[in-house]
Amino acid sequence: MNRAELSAQIDRLTSALRAMRRELRLCEQIEADMEHIRDQLALAHTDAQREETKKRKEVKRDEYGR
């Protein structure tokens, strides 16, 4: 390989590495966000269960009041 071909190959590899590094940073950010998202999902699920329980109690109270 001559110098120009080597330079072109280095440029292609450098470009490919940049793309891979961007993708790696994105994956790392997603992984870092997962715990927060999991916690928020669990909280939303708990809130939904609490709301459902509250509605059932209200329905029972209304049925007993009749």
Structure, described:
- The chain has 66 residues and is an all-alpha fold.
- The chain contains 1 helix and no strands.
- The chain has one helix spanning 3-65.
- The longest helix is centred in the middle third of the chain and has 63 residues, at 3-65.
- It starts with a helix and ends with a helix.
- The mean pLDDT is 92.
Features:
single chain; mainly alpha; 1 helix
- Calculate the terminal CA-CA distance, rounded to whole Å: 92 Å
Strand content: under 5%
Major sheet, described briefly? none
Taking pLDDT < 50 over at least 5 consecutive residues as the criterion, the unreliable ranges are: none
Alpha-beta content class: mainly alpha
Share in helix: over 70%
Helix count equals 1
Kindly state the number of beta strands: 0
